[in-house]
Each structure stands twice: as structure tokens, then as C-alpha cells.
Records
---
Amino acid sequence: MKSLLCLQMMTRMRGRFSTNMNEQGIREVLRALGCHSIRRCGDHVRANCPLAPYTHKKGTDRHPSFLVKIEEFDKSCYHCFSCRSKGTLNGLLFELQQMGTHVDPELVEKVKRTERQDPSQKAIQRAGTPLFSKHFLLAQKKHKEEVWSEEEYKPFSGKLHKYILSRGLSVDTCKRWEIGYDSDKKRVMFPVRRYPDGSLVGAVGRTIEKGVEPTYLTYFNFKKSHFLYGEHFLRRASEGVFAEAMGYDLPAQDGVIIVEGMMDVLKLYEIGYENVVGLMTATISKRQVSTIKKTGRDVYLMLDWDRAGISGRASAAKAFSQKCQVYDVPGIRKCDCGSRWSELNNSGDHVCKECGASWTNYSEDEKRLKDPDGLTEEETLDCLRSSKIVRISS
């Protein structure tokens, strides 16, 4: 009888000071990490793997293989049968932070208090061998190197040169996009942030002095082909949140508008668009295509209406043709037959799509008609309203 009472007392005390994470707590942690398909599976909670973007071949876990064991008196451990990663929840949060994923500090503290474990301990193991392959470790290192501290951009932030305001941008827009100025190199600064966490990955500086080359200079070892200017706002696009400034009656609000330059992006933002990104060149890369596809939205190609832009528009249309609806946005310049649609033939000349006539090259007076940022607000909206679906033959 005495032994039974002692056992009951020990059990109560153990429960009182238990370090376990119950099922509800595990579900809250997984939801906070963006996991879906969360459900009970025996004495485990199953969900898609939060490490999938880093450890799974295709970056996804379509068939949830991530299990967290519900422990009554011990730390809650997880195991992914796809990437073979395993460890504690506390260690999982630590690893995600190390990989560059933003994790809510309050969530980290809550799990740390519950699990009572030092996150600096080795959290993930794979049968006594390193978790990640050499290929993945190199990819992870590259992924980390692309992200820069906010301190790197601090010398340029909060400085507005009159040049940028003379281009028709408001102070509010400049603040929202964190436009700055490099007083040493005399360049207006455009910081670039990645989708979806908004981490700083680089910056582009535009000279304000005539004759200075190059016109655009990259900072922080920035690779323009890896990112899109404005892509950190695409999370709002994927959620269907558009145009805070002007409501939801603008044309092309149902997709992602692709332009070339930073000023093209900012001019469209002034009108009320947030679903717009800039290639920072005329040719789209595979990585940029991959980022836009994640939104699940249609694509509107509004590149410059010159040789490079029309050529880049054709390659971009092919890249998206199997995944989403692609629209071509015409310029405002017209052929003699009245058509605003042109394409490049084999010799590199502009040809009217309607009548087949050859268009002459643009004169200097028509230069503003070639770039979206040179159009008035009404001209821009008219171009977007006139968008046509691109038909790509198989």
C-alpha cells in the first residue's frame, strides 16, 4: 500500500514538472512553421516537412512524411522518412534559423521553456552520419551567402536624392521601397529583397550623372538573375491582396506583371499595383520563373517595346506557357494599319502581327513610348487593358 502511494505521488510530481510538448502544443508549433496536412497518426502528429525547401529534392513534401512523437514525460522528437532528418523540436527551430528561415522568437522561447534543451546541441542526426550531403551543404552555404545584414544597407538608407523625386515618385513610395543614396559613388540605391521572407539579398545603384558607366551598378555581390525587384511583395500577390492605394478595379490585378527596370516597377506601384516585379534585364532566368510560379498567378509581360524587350517577351512566354496563362501587353505606338502589336522577325526588325508590315526603328522622340516608366498613368492602364493571351504552339 505504501509503495502504491509513493508511486502515485511520484507520478503526480513527474507530471507537474514534465517537460513534454502535448499534442496541442505540437500542432501549434507546426502551424507556426507553415506546415499543412497536420493530423494525428497513432502516438505521433504527422505533417509536411518544414525542412523540405532545404532537404527534399524538389523542395516540397507533397506526401507528408514528417512525424513528431507525442511524449508524456520526455522531449518531443521528430523524424522525416523522406529526408531522414530527426531531432527535437527545439533543435528543429534552431536549424531552421541557421538556414535563414524567419522563426518567431516567442515560439522559440516557448519551445525552449517546454523542452528545456540547449539549442546549440547537435539537434539533427542521420544514423550517426552528417544529415546533409556535400551537395546540399554547398547549396546551403550559397543560400546563406546571398542574405546580407540590414547593417550593410544602413549607410544608404534614409537618403533621398532630388533625382528620384524628379522621376515622379512620391516620398511615401520611396520610403516603402527603402530607396537610398550612395553619396560616394553618386548613385540612387534600390535594395532588393527575396521572396517570401524579405531578407536583403543585394542592391542596385543607378548613376545620376550623364556619361558615367555603367548606368547600373550591383552591390553586395548581387546576382540579378537570381532575384526579381519587388519579389518580396509577391506573398501578397499569392494571397490575392492587391492595390491598397486604389482598390481592386485596375486591369491585370489577377496576375503578376513582369517589367524590366526598377523604375517601371515603381511607376506601376504609384498607380496602385503591388503585383509587379522587375527582371532588372530583358531576359528572364529559370530561377526568376520558379519564383513567379510559386504565386500560382497568371503572367502579364510588360517588357520594354524595343528589340531586347520583344525578344525577352517571347522567351518568357515559352517559360510560363505550360504552367499559367500568359498575356502580352502592347505598347501605345501604332502601325499604319492601326495595330499596336509587333514582333521580331529573323532579321531583327519589327513586324506588325496584324498586317505583316515592317515597322521603322524608334526615333529619339519616341523613346519614351518604348519604356513603361515613360508612359502616363492613363496610357499605362490602356496598355494593360489591351493585353492579349499569348498562344504558344507545341
---
Amino acid sequence: MNEINESCSMIQELFKQYTDDDYMKSRMHQYICNRLPKIFETIHKTHVTSQTYEEHMQNNQETFIQNFLHINKYYYVPTSEKFFIYDNEHYSTISEDDILHNVLTSISKNKQLLAWKKSTKIQMMCKIKSNLLFNFYHRF
């Protein structure tokens, strides 16, 4: 409610400021009644479109990360700062550079995520680093 009162007060102040200037009063009236609604309609549409795009990209990113990690079973050991990959039979060490190469190559193949390549890479590496090898062993 404070925003409404402040906005109304500002408009009243402007009309007071130009009380003797018919041209300026006419311009303010035209602007407030004709241009301002269209400006706000455009701002609102842009905001809604932006939010929709953001949600769509976040969903695509999360789906991509889940699928990638389902196929590529990477694990991390923070005490040694080493990464491991599991091929459904054996664990072997893998360098962070090799993981990054695989991550970035996979993202590049997904045209929808190219604009979010850096963000997806960062999210992916955080998920991999939180996928601790010893936690995996303790599940059994």
C-alpha cells in the first residue's frame, strides 16, 4: 500500500509543480493515461516470458544432469580429491579434466543448454563432488 501512496503523491507533486503549465499537465495526462499502461504491459510480458524461459531452462538443465549422471557413474573422495568412475563392474580413477571434457562435450551436443553451458558445468561438478564414493559403499 505504501508504494501506491508514494506513487500517487509523486503524481500529485508533479501536477502541483506544473500547475500553471497547461502543456506539461497535458503531457503528463497523455503519458499517464496512454503511454504508461502500454509500457507496463510490455514490462509485464517481458517479465513473464523471462520467468517461463528460466523455469524451462532449469528443468532442462536438471533433466540433463540427472540423465548424464545416470549414464556416467562418477564418484568423488574429498580427502584425496580424486574422482572415480564405475563401469558397472570396476571402479577406476579418472581425472577431473577428463570428466570436464565429457561434461562439456555432452552439453555441447544438447543445443538447448548451450546458453547455460557454464552454469550446467558448475552444477554438474557440484553434483559429482557431492556423490561421495564412501557413501555409495555404505549403502550396501
---
Amino acid sequence: MELFLASENTAFSVALAFMILVLILEVLSSGIISGMLDSLVPDIDLDIDIDADMDADADISGGADIPALSKIFIWTKDRVPMLVYFIIFLTVFSSIGFVTQYYIKRAIGHYLPWFFIVPSAFILSVLISRYISKLLSKIAFKDETTAVSSDSFIGSLATITTNVAKKGRRVEARLTDKHGQIHYVFIEPEEKGAEFKVGEEVLLTRKENDTFKCVENELTERN
């Protein structure tokens, strides 16, 4: 218990507690937390297709005016949802911190100051989490014989994950294809004046370049 309560390890204890809290809230909220986390991401209005059928690395290198922060974010989480990467990162970060501090104290008799261990653990965690995310994307979000064309998404329902969608402003949305695979696409309202918020379901009507046009889900409208 001393390991978790030591002031030098506060950052790792907070990361571990936050990870557990996020998991509990995600289960209780039936996925709402995932949408909230995605909404915290900067508005990525880029000329790239982050559909799971495409290679994220190739998309980033081929983009012309991609903000540095967006490049880092997409490179970091690869194809996995932000919630998954966030949990991986917090788990790796707290594990590295606690394990390192445990053996450091056994070796020299005291913990390293937080300003030495936290930055090192953070950088190492980003790299390790990136590797785990990439590996996980090939296992849980892999493309095999179940790969589908993005054109087949027309007529599907997608859930808004980032910001408010307006005419002339596309945002990210998540959908599940007939094989159960998750895809992230850009959507934009078909009609002028239409607005769709985070968590709302929309119907994809057509594809224009790398952006899907959408309208309100009729079932939602009736309810």
C-alpha cells in the first residue's frame, strides 16, 4: 500500500484510479463515455480518410495540411477507438511507474522524485501503447476476407463521435458493418441548417470524395 500512497507515485496512482473509473462509467453508461472521450479530440477536419479499411500511416503521410497535433493523435491511437487507447495508455503508464519505483526503492532505499520518473514513464508509455494499439488493431480491427468497400456504407447508420456536424463542416462518425467491424468515417449533413450532435445517429445517403452525406435517422425522428 505504501507504493500506491507515496507522494512520488501520485501520478501513477491517479492514472490507475482514473482508468478504473473510466471502465466503470463506460459499462454503466453503455458507451456514452467513449463518445465523450472522442469529443475531446481536436476537430480533425482533414483531407484524409480514417476508415478502418485504409492504412492510417499512409493517410497521414499523404495529407497536405494536417495539423501537427492531429498527426500525433492519429499516429498514436492508430485504428483503435480513443477509449481503448486511453485505457491502454493509463494501464501502461501506471504499471511502468509502480514497477520501476518498486525496484528502485529495493535497490537504493527510496523512490525517485516524481519529476524524474513521470516524464520518462510518460514517453515510454506513449511508445509502448502505440505498439499495443497497432497490434490490437490488427487483431480486433483487422481486415481479412470480411473487408468491405466504403461505398457499401451508404444506407447505414453512423453515430457522431466528435463535435456538432453542420453543412460545410464535416465531423467523425462511427459505424459497424455487416461483419461487425467498426469503421470511422467523415460525415456532413445533406441538408442546409441540419445539425447533429455527438451521440446522435444519422443515415448515410451518399459519398462525395472521402465524406459521407447524411440525414436524420427516420426512427429517431419518429421517437
